[in-house]
Design brief:
Layout: E1 5-9, H1 14-25, E2 29-34, H2 42-51, E3 56-59, H3 65-75, E4 79-82, H4 89-94, H5 96-117, E5 121-127, H6 151-165, E6 170-176, E7 178-180, H7 199-207, E8 214-217, E9 229-230, E10 232-234, H8 235-250, H9 253-260, E11 268-273, E12 279-280, H10 281-292, E13 298-301, H11 316-322, H12 330-344
Bound molecules: uridine-5'-diphosphate-4-deoxy-4-fluoro-alpha-D-galactose.
């Protein structure tokens, strides 16, 4: 059987690069487009080491319709995984138009090119941010979404609506929880530019001596230890979820409809991609210390604006329907994140 080609937009980014490795391991042929806005060309060399050849790479922007049309003509991908998007909550508040342009206009432009090329299959990167501050945890895929707390969140909600409304496409919409960790080889990982906003890169940079200390944003929340709770997921588990989603797009449609009990809604499926376990910031720090033997200098500071108190995933649907389950625990996430930090610093 001919190898299926998967176009991976943003394929040199954090989640994209790990997914490229998993796609290769599962027998697919990845084709990468990335504009290097938040990624580095060195990642391509690391991917070459990991998969044994240099994957097809086009430096360019998904908003460039002429280029995208050319890519579809030349490579004829069977499906697309669309990672290319901006993802910093704070930045989206400062530059909303940039977010709407890249994340929403870019998606529409990609869909138009796909439709012209006759390519229907898409895996879309959504986020648990669509749930906002949920009334009940864990959150299910059926939990009502809440008004977005940032332009970034709004772009993810809009992306979901756009895809749901366009039933010509077959979409797997993955709502990521908090991706952390790195490939166990330490050849690829997260490369935040400037001062990190997210907990794990800030923590590992602190332990590496790049930052003096970690500030825990708020110790007076209504949680067992007063700090916020999240569902941290190893980036390799997340990457494997994309392979499962791609597999489902190529699987028998009738089987899908039967499982879902509704043949009319099988063009758009949404899954929570988390572990199903919530950990507080202090539990994460403790897990890091126990996994690595390193101390994390930290203080409890004031709350951060816009933080949700507690959110973690209900994973029954993704386990049963997609047949995917996270397998790496918090200590493995911390160990791999720390090994990666040591490799880059
Ligand atoms: N935190 C700290 N100190 C830091 C950084 C983070 O205590 O220096 C805390 C946060 O307050 C939060 C937890 O660590 O309680 C996780 O924070 P992150 O910034 O790592 O992640 P978020 O949960 O805020 O954000 C993630 C994604 C976003 C997405 C959001 C949806 O990074 O893309 O989830 O809730 F929009």
């Amino acid at each position: 059987m001919e190898q299926k080609k998967i176009l991976v937009t943003g394929g040199l980014g954090f989640i994209g690069s790990h997914t490229v490795v998993c796609l290769h391991e599962a027998g697919y042929k990845p084709v990468i487009i990335d504009n290097l806005h938040n990624s580095r060309i060195e990642v391509l060399l690391a991917l070459e080491k990991l998969i044994g050849y240099s994957p097809d790479f086009i430096q360019g922007d998904v908003n460039d319709k002429a280029l995208m049309s050319e890519i579809f003509k030349v490579h004829q991908p069977n499906a697309v995984i669309h990672f290319a998007a901006h993802k910093a909550v704070g930045e989206s508040v400062e530059q909303p138009l940039m977010y709407y342009h890249n994340n929403v206009v870019g998606l529409v432009s990609l869909l138009e090119v796909m439709q012209n090329a006759g390519c229907k299959k898409l895996v879309f990167s959504s986020s648990c941010t669509v749930y906002g501050e949920p009334e009940q945890v864990p959150v299910k895929e059926s939990t009502p979404t809440r008004p977005a707390a940032s332009p970034y969140g709004a772009t993810k909600q809009m992306g979901e609506v756009i895809l749901k409304d366009n039933s010509w496409f077959e979409v797997q919409c993955l709502r990521y929880f908090n991706p952390v960790g790195a490939h166990e080889s330490s050849l690829i990982g997260e490369l935040p530019l400037g001062v990190p906003n997210n907990l794990i890169p800030y923590l590992t940079q602190t332990v590496a001596g790049i930052r003096p200390q970690l500030t825990v944003h708020g110790g007076d929340y209504n949680t067992p230890d007063g700090t916020c709770i999240r569902d941290y997921i190893h980036v390799m588990d997340l990457a494997e979820a994309h392979v499962a989603a791609i597999g489902r797009l190529f699987a028998d449609k009738i089987a899908h409809s039967v499982e879902l009990g509704d043949p009319s809604c099988n063009n758009f499926e949404v899954f929570n991609i988390g572990t199903g376990d919530g950990y507080s910031v202090l539990e994460v720090i403790a897990a890091f210390e126990s996994a690595t033997g390193e101390k994390v200098p930290h203080i409890i500071g004031p709350r951060r604006n816009g933080d949700v108190v507690a959110v973690w995933a209900e994973t029954t649907k993704v386990n049963d329907v997609l047949g995917w389950k996270a397998s790496r625990n918090l200590e493995t996430m911390m160990r791999d994140a720390w090994n990666w930090q040591r490799a880059v610093s």
